[in-house]
Write a structure and sequence with these properties.
- Helix content is 40%, strand content 26%.
- It has an eight-stranded mixed β-sheet with strand order 3-2-1-4-5-8-6-7.
- α2 packs parallel to α3 and α6 crosses α8.
- The chain is globular, with a radius of gyration of 16 Å.
- Pfam families: Methyltransf_23.
- Pathway: Cofactor biosynthesis; ubiquinone biosynthesis.
- Its EC number is 2.1.1.222, 2.1.1.64.
- InterPro entries: SAM-dependent_MTases_sf, UbiG_MeTrfase.
């Protein structure tokens, strides 16, 4: 059984043709990508590194890391998203190895292959996020970096990320997120430690609806990112 929700795959597959349109439903991904890219770059240094992007979708983060000189592999289970990602390479001229494969299957095939593993905005969409975290730990080299981003589970996150973003501001399609699948930082850090990953930094990402600007901050109550290092 693949660790994937068929309804989630269908939802993103139906929108896949709009992945690279910065005015589409994927506008938030385009706007936060420079923030998460710089954060990863500052910590891990991407040039010359082997990088795996889990849940790569249409390839926004994958391509930007390749542009920084990384040797990037992107995996996803959506045929349509991967087709869009591969098509966009013809326009951008970047080099990314896109594959239809689950994190767990790739971990069995390529243990300890990567210097850096990213799993961004994905954990809240799968049935067993702890299994993805464990796969990340298998895939990264000892001493390597694993980066996660997801949504906290609390009333504030529900009001802002679901009611606010999907129903009031219309930043995301209605039904994009299932609040029951949101993950508290303590849960994610516990799964990481159990898999052999040491949490190193926990930061938040905030959005100002007046200025329409995202920024990294110390408020992890809604969107947050975690950097971990695999213990040797």
């Amino acid at each position: 059984m693949q660790n994937a929700d068929p309804l989630e795959l269908q939802k993103f597959s139906e929108l896949a043709h709009r992945w690279w349109d910065p005015t589409s439903e994927f506008r938030p991904l385009h706007e936060i990508n420079p923030l998460r890219l710089e954060w990863i770059e500052q910590i891990a240094g991407l040039a010359g590194k082997t990088v795996l992007d889990i849940g790569c979708g249409g390839g926004i983060l994958s391509e930007s890391m390749a542009a920084r000189g990384a040797d990037v592999t992107g995996i996803d289970l959506s045929d349509k998203a991967l087709a869009v990602a591969k098509l966009h390479l013809l326009e951008s001229g970047r080099r990314v190895d896109y594959r239809k494969e689950s994190a767990e299957a790739h971990a069995a095939e390529a243990p300890e292959r990567y210097d850096v593993v990213t799993c961004m905005e994905m954990l809240e969409h799968v049935p067993d996020p702890a299994s993805i975290v464990a796969a990340c730990a298998q895939l990264v080299k000892p001493g390597g970096h694993v980066f996660f981003s997801t949504l906290n589970r609390n009333p504030k996150a529900y009001l802002l990320a679901v009611i606010g973003a999907e129903y009031i501001l219309n930043m995301l399609p209605k039904g994009t997120h299932d609040y029951a699948k949101f993950i508290r930082p303590a849960e994610l850090c516990r799964w990481a430690k159990a898999a052999g990953l040491e949490p190193d930094e926990l930061i938040g990402m905030g959005y100002n609806p007046l200025t329409r600007v995202y920024r990294l901050n110390r408020d992890t109550s809604v969107n947050y990112l975690v950097h971990t290092v695999r213990r040797r």
